[in-house]
Design brief:
single chain; 493 residues; alpha+beta; 2 domains; two-stranded antiparallel sheet; binds adenosine monophosphate; binds magnesium ion
Length: 493
C-alpha cells in the first residue's frame, strides 16, 4: 500500500493525530480481494495474521499517518459544534490504477481526541452489518463507501453487557461531510472554510475548476460546488428510496459531500412496504423514516448552503439570495429523479411530458403495496412476470386497488417503444432479486458472534449479483416470516 496523503497537509485544526489501540488477538474475518485488486493493492502472499494486524491498526505501514478528522453536525435536528471521528481513524489515502484517490479508514480502532465519553471501539455486530450492507449497496449500483476488511479484536467491549470487539476497514472517496463544513462555519473560521471548499472541489469536482478560474466572481466556486453536491445527494437518496433503503441516521455528519452513502448504522432495506417505515430505535419521531428522506436531504443541503454564505458574498443578503436560488430547485429535482427511477422499476421511460401521470401511477402502486403490506422488493420483481400473457393477474390478489393500478399501468405501457421482452429485461435490471434483508443480516451477526461465518459469507456471495437469480442461494430472496421480522436496529455505538 503506497500512501499519498493530502488531508494531513491541511492546517492542524482540521484533524488530530491518533495512536491505534492495542488488541490481544486480531483475527481476519473477511478480506475483500476483489476490491483490493481494483484499488491496486497487492496483498499477495501476506498472511491473514499480517492482514489482521494491518486492518486493526496494530501494524502501521510505511507512509501511514493516522488522523481523526474534525467535524460538527446536526444530530436529529440539534446542532453539536464539535463531533469528529470518535471511533474512526484515517490510515491514509491511496491512488488506484485509474488515478482516483481513496481514503482508507479504520472504524473501532480506539479512542481519539474526539471520543468524548466513548471508548472509540466497535462491537462486532456493526462491523458485520456495515460490511454486508455497504458491499450490497455497491453491487446494487448505488454510490457508497466500500468494505475492505472485517477483523475481530479478541477483546470484549462494554455495552449493555460484554460484546466481542471488531474493527472495520472502509474505503471512501473521502470522509468530508456536510458536518465538516459546519465545523468551520460554527467557529467563524472563514479561512478554514475556504481551504475546505478548495480541497473538496479539487478532490471531488475538478470538472468545475475551469469555470471557476475563468470567473472573476467569488461566488462562482461555492455556488458551483453546492450545485454539484445537490445533484449527487438528491440522486443518491432517490436511488436509496427506489430500493426501499432507509439510512436511519441522516444527520449532517453522515452525509458525504462526494454523494456516497456513508455511515451505515441502524439502516435497513424495507421488507413490507410502508411509507413511514423506521427501523432505527433512536428515531422515535420518525425524522428519518422512508418517505421523509426526500425532505431531509433538502434540510441537510440547506445546512450546507448556510455554511457557504460568507464565501459567496460579503453582503449577507445577496449571498443568501444566490444560495436560495440553488436550493429552490431541490424539490423538483428530487421528484424528477424519483419518478424516473420508480417508473423504470415499472418498465417505463419517464420524461417531462409524462412525469405527472407517472407519479400518480407510482403512488397507486405504492398505496396498494402499503395497504396489503406486500414485500417491496419481491412485488416489483414479480410485476415483470405479469407481462407474460399466461400469468394473468393471478400473481397478485385482484382487489380493486390492484386492478385500477394494473389497468393504468398496462395502458401506460402501450406508449413505450420497447417490445415486451425488452421491457421485462429492463425491469429486471433495476428490480433486485436479493437485498440484504434485516433478518438475514441479523443471522449473519449472530453467527459471527459464535465464530460461524457461513451466513455472513453466503450473504456476501449472493449480494455480489443482486439482480441475478441464484438457485443455490435462493433462500436469501424470501421475506421474513412475521416472527423473523426485525422491528428495530441499533447503531451499536
Ligand atoms: P455515528 O452515530 O456513528 O454517526 O456517530 C456520531 C458521533 O459519535 C461521531 O462523532 C462518532 O465518532 C461518535 N461515536 C460513536 N460511537 C463512538 C464510540 N464508541 N466511541 C467514541 N465516539 C463514538
Ligand atoms: Mg457518523
Amino acid at each position: 500500500m503506497k500512501f499519498k496523503n493530502t488531508y494531513d497537509s491541511l492546517p492542524a485544526r482540521f484533524f488530530a493525530e491518533v495512536t491505534p489501540e492495542k488488541f490481544s488477538n486480531p483475527t481476519l474475518l473477511r478480506f475483500n480481494e476483489n476490491l483490493a485488486s481494483d484499488l491496486g493493492l497487492n496483498p499477495g502472499e501476506q498472511s491473514t495474521t499480517k492482514l489482521a494486524e494491518i486492518f486493526s491498526g496494530q501494524r502501521l505501514l510505511e507512509g501511514s499517518h493516522p488522523i481523526a478528522m474534525a467535524y460538527a453536525a446536526h444530530q436529529f435536528g440539534n446542532f453539536v459544534p464539535q463531533l469528529g471521528d470518535g471511533r474512526a481513524l484515517l490510515l491514509g489515502e491511496i491512488i488506484d490504477p485509474k488515478g482516483k484517490r481513496f481514503d482508507i479508514q479504520l472504524k473501532g480502532a480506539g479512542r481519539t481526541v474526539f471520543s468524548r465519553n466513548g471508548d472509540g471501539k466497535s462491537a462486532l455486530g456493526p462491523v458485520i452489518r456495515e460490511y454486508i450492507v455497504s458491499e450490497a449497496m455497491h453491487h446494487l449500483g448505488v454510490p457508497t463507501t466500500r468494505a475492505l476488511a472485517a477483523v475481530s479484536t479478541g477483546d470484549s467491549i462494554v455495552r449493555e453487557g460484554p460484546l466481542p470487539g471488531g474493527v472495520f476497514t472502509r474505503i471512501a472517496a473521502s470522509h468530508i461531510r456536510i458536518g465538516t463544513f459546519q465545523y468551520f462555519a460554527a467557529r467563524g473560521d472563514i479561512d478554514g472554510l475556504k481551504i475546505l471548499l478548495d480541497y473538496s472541489i479539487d478532490r471531488h469536482y475538478p470538472e468545475i475548476k475551469t469555470e471557476i478560474q475563468n470567473s472573476s466572481n467569488d461566488s462562482t466556486s461555492p455556488i458551483l460546488f453546492l450545485k454539484k453536491v445537490i445533484q449527487n445527494q438528491v440522486s443518491l437518496v432517490s436511488q436509496w428510496m427506489s430500493l426501499g433503503f432507509i439510512h436511519g441516521v441522516m444527520n449532517t455528519d453522515n452525509m458525504s459531500i462526494s454523494g456516497e452513502t456513508i455511515d451505515y448504522g441502524p439502516c435497513a432495506f424495507m421488507d413490507g412496504f410502508n411509507y413511514g417505515q423506521v427501523y432505527s430505535y433512536i428515531d422515535s419521531q420518525g425524522r428519518y423514516s422512508y418517505m421523509n428522506q426526500r425532505h431531509i436531504v433538502q434540510w441537510n443541503l440547506t445546512r450546507l448552503a448556510e455554511c457557504l454564505i460568507p464565501l459567496v458574498d460579503s453582503d449577507d443578503q445577496k449571498a443568501r439570495e444566490l444560495l436560495n436560488h440553488e436550493l429552490s430547485y431541490i424539490s423538483d429535482l428530487f421528484t424528477k429523479h424519483w419518478v424516473q427511477r420508480m417508473a423504470a422499476k415499472l418498465g417505463l421511460v419517464s420524461d417531462d411530458s409524462s412525469i405527472i401521470e407517472d407519479e400518480k401511477l407510482i403512488k397507486m402502486w405504492l398505496d396498494y403495496l402499503e395497504k396489503e403490506k406486500l414485500d417491496f422488493t419481491l412485488s416489483f420483481r414479480k410485476l415483470s412476470d405479469l407481462l407474460d400473457e399466461n400469468n394473468g393477474s393471478s400473481l397478485f390478489e385482484s382487489t380493486h386497488p390492484f386492478e385500477d393500478f394494473e389497468k393504468g399501468w398496462k395502458k401506460r405501457l402501450k406508449n413505450e417503444v420497447f417490445d415486451v421482452e425488452t421491457i421485462k429485461q429492463n425491469m429486471n435490471r433495476v428490480n433486485p432479486v436479493y437485498i440484504p434483508r434485516n433478518h438475514q443480516v441479523e443471522r449473519a451477526i449472530q453467527g459471527a458472534l459464535v465464530e460461524d461465518l457461513s451466513v455472513f459469507n453466503e450473504l456476501n456471495k449472493v449480494l455480489e449479483n443482486p439482480y441475478l437469480k441464484q438457485p443455490e442461494l435462493d433462500s436469501y430472496r424470501i421475506a421474513p416470516l412475521p416472527e423473523e421480522e426485525i422491528a428495530a436496529t441499533y447503531c451499536g455505538t
